[in-house]
Amino acid sequence: MSSNPGRAKPAQNADYALLKQQAASLIEDETDFIANAANFAALLYHGIPRINWAGFYFPSGDGLVLGPFNGRPACTRLPRGRGVCGAAFISGETVVVDDVDRFADHIVCDTASRSEIVIPLKSGSITVGVFDVDSAELARFTPEDQHGLEALVSAFAEHVAFPEALMRPDHSSSEEQFADIELCRHQHAELRTILDAIATAPVPPRDTLVRLRQKLNAHSELEDGRVYPLLRACANEVVRHKAERGVRELGGLREELDALIDSWGIDAIPSSDTIAWQREWGAFQRAMEARMIFEDHDLFCAAQADLRR
Ligand code: SME
């Protein structure tokens, strides 16, 4: 039984002025960004009443990735522009959601959360992340909370040294992504020329195989290292699924080339084996061609159409 029925204490709000002092003293002598972000999230989580989550999301790939936080484990990645966090990140404005069920694009990490506030984290004019606070109460965040949190987040941004990677986010602009895809198409044309040169040679031509391996490595750095991760995290479901299909069905060609070179030796092969060599080479070339056709005429078209929208 409650010891004091009918005399519940009125719910207190956070003391934002005190939190600001505490945040400053936690951060001022430390230069490590992760340590400061982690302490900031912990301070706010414990200092703001009636919340169930407080933490950062930072740009990564084509969307946002979870940063230091307090609360239950949360969604690790949020696709570009999606959710309350994506809306705050893209607009650079604070987003307050009184009832998450009425915010169509809300991303559920914890079904207990009913209201949410997301404040963009800025370094000068660059938005370098967001700070997200959730509550299990409807309409928990008042204008007082908004002002208090905005002041805290901007004080945090002023005091910390942001990592280079956040200042030059690897979430490239649409134009850069479009240009990367164009570069992949161009590299495909170069690869085709080398593949054809090898196919028409009677025995494996060492120099050309070495050149192919170098070109394929550079191509894979761009395509597998940059382009595919962006497309696999794309907000557009069609692009995402096509990229997954590409990885699932058409991946591993670099390793196949290595295996082919290893098994045949890169120098000379006996001329009696040339038919077997050409058969194996033909299979590899067809697999390369299938992948490039899929990318040039299907995946990249869908991705570039989406980027043009
Ligand atoms: N609800 C957020 C996702 C992050 S979690 O709440 C921690 C959103 O819609 O962006």
Q: Describe it for me?
A:
By secondary structure, this protein is of the alpha+beta class. The chain is 56% helix and 13% strand. It contains 10 helices and 6 strands. The chain has 2 domains: 152 residues, Beta-Lactamase (2-Layer Sandwich); 135 residues, Four Helix Bundle (Hemerythrin (Met), subunit A) (Up-down Bundle), CATH 1.20.120. Bound molecules: methionine sulfoxide. Methionine sulfoxide binds next to helix 3 and strand 6. The site of methionine sulfoxide has 14 residues, from helix 3 and strand 6.
**Which CATH class of the largest domain is shown?**
Alpha Beta
CATH superfamily of the largest domain: GAF domain
Which stretches of 5+ consecutive residues score pLDDT under 50? Answer: 1-8
Helix proportion range: 55-70%
The CATH topology of the largest domain corresponds to Beta-Lactamase
- Tell me the Rg in angstroms: 26 Å
Number of helices: 10
- Overall pLDDT: 87
Portion of residues in beta strands equals 5-15%
| DSSP summary, beta strand count | 6
Biggest pleated sheet: 6 strands, antiparallel
* Terminus-to-terminus distance: 60 Å
Give the name of the CATH architecture of the largest domain: 2-Layer Sandwich
Whole-number tally of structural domains: 2
Global morphology: elongated
Structural class: alpha+beta
Named once each, the bound ligands are: methionine sulfoxide
